[in-house]
Amino acid sequence: MGKVTKHTEGKGDAMVNTETGEETEMPDDPLRPVFAPLGVAELSGKKAEYRKVNVPSNRFTPLKENWMALYEPVTKKMKIDMRMNLKAKKVELKTTKETEDDGALQKSADFVQAFLLGFEVQDAVALLRLDDLYLECFEVKDVKQTLKGEHMSRGIGRLAGKSGKTKFTIENATRTRIVIADQHIRILGSFQNIKIARDALCNLILGSPPGKVYSKLRSITARLSERF
User: How confident is the model at residue 160 (pLDDT cuts 50, 70, 90)?
Assistant: First the structure.
């Protein structure tokens, strides 16, 4: 079936069939309303939207030291108001009249949340620029519940490796960023890359030797590079 498109020449409108090239004139209708595209303010009912991000007690000092690095991208690039509520211990975000992107508020909240989870500012800021980046959090006990005491410590040690070598290798191979905070593991990256990194980390927790995990990563990344 031919696709019908509309185009305007002069004052009159015409419907064009792209297969046959036939044009059907449409009579001018002075009563037909013409509306301008809706902006973010109109879509949200002209009310400011808010987001609040809880600040853990151990991240107060890093937040204070890197406040301007967080504040400038959110306020200048995303046009979102941002302030720290010391009484409630929360970072508060609010849309303004200048906010253009309807997803800017959620992106800004994800950016602040990523920093508070332990990611560097230069890594977390990618959440503002790219649409297909996600955060995934899980615990070592979610993978293997029987790990306790020294067994838990060895499991966490296998994830990091000597001087962080294993963690850096997984990050570089999967193009992700990983934060290991005690038993909590956070991964920042695209959906597919997060899955590959998570599988590698789970294998290490379950006791696979790093060499075996590396070789599996090499084969997976080689297949991905051939596919793209």
Answer: confident
- 63 touches 116 (CB < 8 A): yes
Q: What are the tokens at 51? A: 């987001």
The kind and range of the H/E element at 8 are strand 4-9
Q: What's the CA gap between 127 and 114, in Å, rounded?
A: 9
pLDDT 10s digits, 179-215: 998 889 999 999 999 999 999 999 988 888 888 888 8
Say how far residue 128 (Cα) sits from the centre of its chain. 8
Domain that holds residue 1: 1-29
125 and 140, same domain (yes or no) = no
Verify that 103 and 140 share a domain, yes or no.
no
Global pTM exceeds 0.90? no
101 and 126 housed in the same domain: yes
Contact 111, 73 (CB under 8 A): yes
Residue 134, CA distances (Å) to 75, 177, 191 in order: 22, 11, 7
Is 89 within the bounds of a domain?
A: yes
Report d(CA 55, CA 90) in Å as an integer: 5
- What total of structural domains would you count in the chain? 3
* Distances, alpha carbon 120 to alpha carbons 64, 75, 88, in Å: 14, 19, 24
To the nearest 10 degrees (0 to 180), the angle between helices 210-227 and 191-205 is: 160
Give the angle 173-180-64 at the CA atoms, nearest 5°.
Answer: 115
